[in-house]
Amino acid sequence: MELYKLTNKNGCTQGNTQWGIGVTHELKATEKPRLCTKDVLHAYKNINLALLLNPNHANISNPKIWEAEGKIVVEDYGKVGCFKLTTTKELSCPDWYIDDKKRRRVQVQFAVLCAESVLHIYENQYPDDNRPRKAIEAAQNYLKKPSNAAAKATNAAAYAAKAAYAAKATNAAAYAAKAAYAAKATKATKAAYAAYEAANAVAYAAKAANVEIDFCALADQAVKMEDNN
To answer: Beta partners for 41?
Structure first.
């Protein structure tokens, strides 16, 4: 299956594992492999998702992107693990990622799309609580017209949504409010982490509600929306 691997500028990942054109690494198979461990070699199903989640996964500065091949043995919302992985060729970095302004907007839009995808779960449980929806709307308004006033409104709405989450932390649907809280990403230094927070929160909410979320599609949609902006 076609996958994507991120490395540093020298083509290395953690532990100075060297990757490059035609380079293969293989690990001993385990019965119950786990992501984010030495059980597997990590990659992604989607190049946009890989870059959006990178800050809270590998946190590689100015990453190189490699097309890769491998058999998936474990995965979690777009991140995958293989026992054997081959990097086949280096790919160009997408335009949205190279441009700081576009990258921030894509990160915020991804957070918004993630929050929207599970908002119905929260609102079905708490129909009278509109704080998560207000946080999403504030972030959308910021994307339409990124002013200081809009940024302050987004931040305020996000904290209100966080309060909704904290008040109902025992209910899995409240993770939707946490995802909405991630929409406060109005600064470049916070946008990347908010995008991850949104995806992570949505993953928990969706799992609890037995709902399938296509994070790869959400990542591509966020990029497409910026391209059409």
So the answer is: 82
Q: Report the 10 Å Cβ neighbour count for 21.
A: 12
- For residue range 25-59, list pLDDT tens digits in order: 999 999 999 998 999 999 999 999 999 988 878 88
C-alpha atoms less than 13 angstroms from C-alpha of 206 in its C-beta half-sphere: 19
Which residues make Cβ contacts (< 8 Å) with residue 22, sequence separation at least 6?
86, 87, 88
Q: Around Cβ 163, how many Cβ atoms within 10 Å?
A: 13
Residue segments in the chain with a per-residue pLDDT below the cut of 50 = 164-189
Q: Which residue, among 221, 182, 204, has the nearest Cα to 122 in the 3D structure? A: 204
pTM: 0.84
